[in-house]
Structure prediction request, 382 residues.
Amino acid sequence: MPSKRIGWQTVTALIDSADGAIGALDFELAVRLLTEAEELARSTFGVDSLEYAKYLAVRGRLNVGRHHWQDAEIDLAAAASVVRQAGEAEQAGLAVILVHLGQAAMFLGDADAAYAAFDEAIQIDTALFGPEHPETLTDITIRNTTSDAVARQRQLYAPPRRTRHANHTSVEPSTSGTASPSGKPWPDIADFPGPRYEPMSGRIQIGVGPYGSASTWRLHEPGVGVRHGVITGPPGSGRTNALNRILINAMHSQRFLISPMAPTWSDTDRDTWKVASFQAEGPDAVRRLLQTLNQRLTENLSHGKQTDPTSTNKAILITIDDADQLFRTAPDIVPIVERITHHGSTAGFGLIVVSTDTTPDSFGGSSLLRETLLAGNHMSCV
Prediction:
């Protein structure tokens, strides 16, 4: 491991270079540089350090640029929290973070949070440089123009206008030209683009959300642990397909052993998950496999924390399709699953359940299980 002085210089150079790549819209280069910066900042300084916060700030800017707005808001808010405590020396950097945080919040539809972030940034730069300084004026310009940028982005996904005539209704394409040949707007979703795992954040891209935003799922958070999650929706809503996409991404990351389970599978799913490291179908088989994995969890806990899966020290991702049905059929499974979710995150275990809704009954009546899973990822299919 390099000394902290050398580590600081290297991390700073990588972050600055990534920031320049983002300015040049070379997002692929930015990702490569930030991936190297993340590992070095985490191993040398820790995830609670100012150095790591500065890395998060640039990753947040990257996520604004590539329309990962929810991820951007999470990264930038975390960076701002640390930098704000660093005192006056970091105030200029805090203002930059707040401007990008305001942009992310505006694209997410939270105008109040956006303007609060913009105004704090303007206040900081006014105090540091004066009201007529280019830094302050740039903040003001961004604050005053971001809502228009959001409107233009949403117009790209606006439905076509319908005009009523005496005997028929005609469909006019949207001004953006994004209407399909049928006259209907293109959907706000996209086909699965293939495995997309990002080591520097532990996130995978699983689709496209409203107005062209990217939807992601976090398999793990570097330096913190493996993330759990819930997928909800009625049968036929695509919830199993969503789960399969996550499993494929996890498997292709080469950092996870996958363990899919279900009370029953379709023939297609049964054939698909024969390749899984551990898989089980039916209450009895699921019970036996969970008991085995629970013993492995005990072994992992005795070895200390395992927060960051690698190709040589893989985490185990357990998924339970139709979990609400399984918990009702085999309620004795619930305490085992509780233990895995409660202790597994920092011991190399993640759990994803698929259920109809988030009512307590869907989690076997366990408040602990419900709260722990919902504190992680949540995808709602309709």
